[in-house]
Design goal:
This protein is an alpha/beta fold. It has a single domain, classed as Vaccinia Virus protein VP39 (Rossmann fold), CATH 3.40.50. Helix 5 links the parallel strand 4 and strand 5. The longest helix is centred in the middle third of the chain and has 13 residues. The protein starts with 7 loop residues before the first helix and ends in a 9-residue tail after the last strand.
Length: 213
Amino acid sequence: MDISDPWSRERQEMVEQQIEARGIADARVLEAMGHVPRERFVPEARRAQAYDDCALPIGQGQTISQPYMVARSLEVATLAPDDRVLEVGAGSGYQAALLGRLCRRVVAVEVVEALAREARGRIAALGLANVSIVHADGSRGFAPEAPYDAILVAAGAPRVPGPLLAQLADGGRLVIPLGSELVQTLTVLRKVGNRVERTTHDACVFVPLLGNY
């Protein structure tokens, strides 16, 4: 614990009680979540709740996801240090910052311009030069830097957007909450040659994916 950081105790308790205690075992994910300052990614009025065990509103009808669901998404993506990753739905930039600690290159797409601008500032303040925040329709992916080793979607969708599968590298993993607006299932699709292998994980509730796809 860093005694110079007033949030370090809450951050460590979040990791131990909300994440590790629920079975998240990926040491790299636990390390990243123990270092990235979540309090910087919530609105000032919500800062005291930054490490609560729940999603929080960040404005524009969007949320920062519950810490456990962020950790679970990162774990099932089976990320490697040399991976190139696309995040769809950057929101406040929190998961993008975590990805920046875990992977070589991160592109995070956000459809709401104000959120993209604010997230870009937070990422810059942390010195994460390997992370880019792009204002665009994330359901289309981001073709200029494809293919990706992993794509993480931080919004629920009734079906898999075709452009995202098309932008996966061979062996790449797409993590996406699939289902209705009321409840989804965290789903991983792995591209293996011309086949797509699907595994399902936790029930979850994310804000709806916006965009043409």
